[in-house]
Amino acid sequence: MTKNDSKTSTPGAPKTARGARTRAKILKAAEEAFGSMGYHQAGVSDITRLAGVAQGTFYTYFASKEDTLRELVRDMGQKLRAHLASEVKNASNRIEAEGLGLKAFLQYVAANPSLYRVLQEAQFVDETIYREYYEAFGRGYLRMLADATRKGEVRPGNDEVRIWALMGLSNFLGLRFALWEQDVPIDDIVASITDLLSHGLALDPKG
Amino acid sequence: MTKNDSKTSTPGAPKTARGARTRAKILKAAEEAFGSMGYHQAGVSDITRLAGVAQGTFYTYFASKEDTLRELVRDMGQKLRAHLASEVKNASNRIEAEGLGLKAFLQYVAANPSLYRVLQEAQFVDETIYREYYEAFGRGYLRMLADATRKGEVRPGNDEVRIWALMGLSNFLGLRFALWEQDVPIDDIVASITDLLSHGLALDPKG
């Protein structure tokens, strides 16, 4: 599949800072192409045109369009996780961190609408790409919940179940209130979810 | 686009019980075809073959493959909502209903795996199909939460936000624990979410 396998070894991580910039430029262009045209419509030539690089340069870093999608989803996930981690780092407890994280996530989705489209479409190229994206989030989340439980900030519980519930909650809030319509102020959404996580949904908890 | 527009008026709702059965058979076949082959690969001829009906019969009820997808998603939503409503009807309060509803949903997804695939793929055919599916769920959910709040079972809050959070939560739990892996007993998942909705995530709620 690679066009340059006679000239170079397997495409992969760049060895220089310049290489890293070129690779990042290609991923950015792929995000733009997949986000606006859709994965199936977009071709490698659209990506190279948007990135302003030659085909050969593309194949120095990526084996195929599918490889670019896989790396793009991984890259988007890493960037979003780093962004969220930095936004919540001053939180004094887990519930506050959840609120700050949700706020940062909603802002991020509004500013980066292609994230959802690329991610959703990746399911139909290779479901493991989509699954790995959430599993990578889940691993970090699992550690944070376990820490918070140990510190007595969070009720003990089945964290594997809780992290998927929390990821699903954010995912749909992002879809509805950041991507589709921005008709509810983000602070109201965050207040509502902070209340839910602080007290539950029940007015008078039993049991 | 319709093949029989010279012979009949717009395709649509069947007028007889036999017609309703034929239409249901076509939708079931479309679910099978889209679920196993994917929407883009599946053709009208695959649907008619699986349903055991002639092309002409297909076009009596549906204008196109896309029309079938739209009706299928609507039909899947109605069936699932009816199923959930019947499963939660004996619940004594909203939190219990949430638990019973989640249990029924997870069982339904495990038994009907094509629901997710068809729904996810519908986004790329026409996003309004996907959005309407969740908005239809949301309208019922909104009434139930408002009722429960009035009865004093649920904390007052922004229900528009809370229903999307709750739908997202169920959606990801279904994806992870019913569709991808069934490695956690459904009762454990339900217990975990019931605890979350009864008490929140915080051990010692503040504010």
From TrEMBL, chains A, B:
Region called Disordered, residue ranges: 1-21
DNA-binding region: 43-62
Domain HTH tetR-type, residue spans: 20-80
Keyword DNA-binding: yes
Keywords of this entry: DNA-binding
SUPFAM superfamilies registered for this protein in UniProt: Homeodomain-like, Tetracyclin repressor-like, C-terminal domain
One Pfam family, short name: TetR_N
InterPro entries per record: Homeodomain-like_sf, HTH-type_Tx_Regulator, HTH_TetR, Tet_transcr_reg_TetR-rel_C_sf
UniProt-listed PANTHER family: ACREF/ENVCD OPERON REPRESSOR-RELATED (PTHR43479), ACREF_ENVCD OPERON REPRESSOR-RELATED (PTHR43479:SF11)
Descriptive protein name: TetR/AcrR family transcriptional regulator
Species classification: Bacteria, Pseudomonadati, Pseudomonadota, Gammaproteobacteria, Pseudomonadales
